[in-house]
Amino acid sequence: MLAILGAGAIGRLWAATLPAGQVAFVPRPGPASEPVRFRFVPHDGSAVDISIPWLQPGQQPELVLVTTKAGATVAALSTLLPTLPAAVPVVLFQNGLGSQQQVTQRWPERPVLAASTTEGANRPAPDITVHAGRGETWVGALTNTGNQQLDTVVEQLKRSGLVTHPEPDITGKLWQKLIVNAGINPFTAILDCNNGDILIHPFYQRWIAPLCQEISQLLPASGQPARSADALRAHIERVARSTAANTSSMRADRLAGRPTEIDYINGYLVKLGKQYAIPTPVNQMLTEQVHQLS
Fold first, then answer.
1. CATH code for the part of the protein at 172-293
2. pLDDT at residue number 32
């Protein structure tokens, strides 16, 4: 039995693609009797009805996937982990950086791993989940005990049919996704547009170059390979073009009235700037503007 903590789009994607009868959602505190039912629209094929039960008291999953928002991760795990054996691995699917470090600092002896995925999923309605784009998922260990279980975890996730790889440098992978998210997500939230539409907007064109300059300075200070601001911008814009019709998770959160993950994306870069005495005024401005939206 695999347990999924977080019943959003990504959580439902994994729930729908893992073998039937071998997955359950972790309930929030309080009674949860009715299964989670939704219509799943695969990337290729016909829509199917999915019913996922809640993890019941006394059930011991062999693996936990955490697909909550970054800001809710520690609190959610604080309720769950005391009920699980210490050997049960936990895979974190959060956007950005910061929440992963919070988890490993809180539970350093636990087998904690992180995932970086390019799978696209969204929920155009509460009872519909769409696999909007095929991608890949990389999984790597964040703790020593997590490293011991990496191969087993990857094999378990491969049962979904989603392309999954072990990744020895998962922090580097998370940084790559952080860079893209920092250069796309806040602009889509502020401008209320799809990914590709930011490229022609004057607000984006004004701020993307200095934003990339800030990130370029932060990379080597954070132990990551150096990359020029021009190379970062080119990479961000390639992704924006390739996902032009997509709605970013940050824009979706804004439209749904949910808290965004800005503090773990551009806000995380602001914190690093303070730590390394590197000015980050553009990241600060984007963080503040996204906060003001809610």
1. 1.10.1040.10
2. 64
